[in-house]
């Protein structure tokens, strides 16, 4: 007699498995996320069904492996090449996460079309839209002539059969993993076990064929790839496509990359004719700056190896509330609380009776600690009502003691500021700097008090 299929209880948020149902997941703390799912039988021929004898695999030494150079396929989009570390590696799997509507499908369509136009075989499976919709979009993007193979399909078995039936593909795009389902499983599409099973079979196929696989995954509001956090370890590269829907800028960031660094970003602009690459992001992020207003400071940042100048805006107003408001956009709120406390304790400028708003212009998110000095300058400028010198940039990390700590890539930051016509920079006193090539007037500060003095406050 066939045994009834075994089931387990899987959290749809984090993928944790528990023996019985519970209202709250003990692993991630989310409520109502646990669902009963049938366990997948091990795939036939995988050798997991009974104890297998095993065979000897050839071993190679590290030295041999070092000689093997990774071949890469350039994508035709310089910004994407930069993030992936020089192009997509054949046989690798990439996951692109991002909020709905941010432009993932647009990016992948442009990429797949560029591949097809370069004479490579690209196949695009969409589970979210009808093929006609994709064709319409391609028309709008001016890509309708590209020899891109296209199908609207959500069944993994059909996708694999289609791929096996055609010529070997160099690039396979699947938009999105949440719509896929494997009919061997009873769970609904989008559940953890479906997403995991579908990804597994697609990745296995792509690796065997040496095709690059690009998977789209939606993220939840708190920025996690919904449910399929569990598949991040199955793919070689995880990219996040971020941005504010109210702004045209989009940032592509690598969260994991087995074939390159993870600190590079790609910058795109969403325009009427699709995503446009932005080669000089600083100019764009500073484009509509009103430098004569108090509370605006330019931060000389670095993302990866690339300098990025961005405006930080602060607004400090008298508060009518018992507990004054603090609001941030593109900035970490606990970092703002820390900055306010340090300025209060070390410069004697209190914000206790004021509402404080801090905004990073252009929809960018800043995580670099070196932005502290620029934010502090913007805050001091806003509370005193004195506009800062528009020709000055700021960078440096502020510690709790008020000391300004050195930042990396000083020369890169200063060069970029110089290139964009800035005349002065406020930067950390510590840190070697070969000032021969820098024509900027430098104010090197070692304490946040020094910043207030430099600003004349
Ligand atoms: P889309 O790629 O469908 O987002 P996702 O796949 O991440 O859900 O694109 C989303 C938005 O981009 C859509 O709201 C309209 C806008 N858009 C443009 O502004 N210009 C264009 O050329 C295209 C194709 C889309
Ligand atoms: Mg889409």
Description of the structure:
By secondary structure, the chain is an alpha/beta fold. The chain folds into three domains: 7-38; 72-279, 3-Layer(aba) Sandwich (Rossmann fold), CATH 3.40.50.300; 284-454, Ribosomal Protein S5, domain 2 (2-Layer Sandwich), CATH 3.30.230.10. The protein contains eleven helices and 21 strands. Strand 5 (122-126), helix 4 and strand 6 (149-152) form a beta-alpha-beta unit. Bound molecules: thymidine-5'-diphosphate and magnesium ion. Magnesium ion (MG) binds at residues 104-105, 128, 175.
Name the structural class: alpha/beta
**CATH fold topology of the largest domain:** Rossmann fold
Count of structural domains: 3
CATH superfamily of the largest domain: P-loop containing nucleotide triphosphate hydrolases
Shape: globular
**Number of DSSP E strands:** 21
User: If classified by CATH, what would the architecture of the largest domain be?
Assistant: 3-Layer(aba) Sandwich
Radius of gyration: 26 Å
N-to-C span: 84 Å
Sheet with the most strands: spatial strand order: 6-5-7-8-4-9-10-11-12
Please give the CATH class of the largest domain.
Alpha Beta
Overall pLDDT, averaged? 87
Estimate percent helicity. Answer: 25-40%
- Content of β-strand: 25-35%
């Amino acid at each position: 007699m066939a045994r009834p299929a075994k089931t387990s209880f899987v959290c749809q948020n984090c993928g944790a498995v528990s023996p019985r149902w519970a209202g709250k997941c003990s692993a991630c703390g989310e409520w109502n996320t646990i669902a009963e799912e049938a366990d997948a039988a091990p795939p036939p021929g995988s050798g997991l069904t009974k104890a297998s004898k095993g065979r000897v695999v050839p071993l190679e030494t590290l030295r041999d492996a070092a000689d093997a150079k990774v071949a890469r396929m350039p994508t035709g989009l310089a910004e994407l090449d930069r993030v992936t570390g020089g192009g997509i590696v054949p046989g690798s799997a990439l996951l692109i996460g991002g909020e709905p509507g941010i432009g993932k499908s647009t990016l992948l369509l442009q990429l797949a079309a560029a591949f097809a136009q370069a004479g490579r075989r690209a196949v695009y499976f969409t589970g979210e839209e009808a093929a006609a919709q994709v064709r319409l979009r391609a028309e709008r993007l001016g890509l309708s002539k590209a020899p891109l193979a296209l199908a609207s399909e959500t069944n993994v078995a059909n996708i694999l059969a289609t791929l096996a039936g055609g010529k070997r593909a160099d690039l396979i795009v699947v938009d999105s993993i949440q719509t896929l389902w494997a009919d061997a499983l009873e769970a609904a599409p989008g559940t953890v076990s479906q997403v995991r099973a579908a990804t597994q079979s697609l990745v296995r196929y792509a690796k065997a064929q040496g095709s690059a696989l690009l998977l789209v995954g939606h993220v939840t509001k708190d920025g996690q790839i919904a449910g399929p956090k569990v598949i991040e370890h199955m793919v070689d590269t995880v990219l996040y496509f971020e941005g504010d829907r109210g702004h045209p800028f989009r940032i592509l960031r690598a969260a994991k990359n087995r074939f390159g660094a993870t600190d590079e970003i790609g910058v795109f602009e969403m325009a009427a004719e699709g995503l446009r690459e932005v080669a000089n992001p600083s100019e764009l992020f500073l484009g509509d700056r009103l430098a004569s207003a108090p509370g605006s400071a330019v931060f000389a940042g670095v993302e990866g190896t690339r300098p990025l100048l961005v405006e930080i805006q602060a607004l400090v107003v008298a508060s009518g509330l018992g507990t004054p408001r603090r609001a941030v956009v593109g900035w970490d709120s606990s970092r703002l609380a820390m900055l306010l406390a340090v300025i209060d304790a070390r410069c004697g400028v209190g914000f206790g009776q004021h509402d404080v708003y801090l905004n990073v212009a252009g929809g960018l998110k800043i995580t670099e600690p070196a932005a502290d000095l620029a934010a502090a300058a913007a805050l001091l400028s806003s509370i005193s009502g004195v506009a800062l010198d528009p020709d000055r940039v700021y960078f440096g990390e502020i510690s709790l003691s008020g000391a300004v700590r050195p930042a990396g890539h000083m020369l890169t930051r200063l060069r970029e500021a110089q290139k964009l016509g800035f005349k002065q920079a406020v930067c950390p006193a510590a840190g070697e700097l070969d000032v021969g090539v820098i024509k900027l007037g430098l104010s090197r500060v070692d304490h946040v008090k020094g910043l207030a003095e430099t600003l004349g406050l």
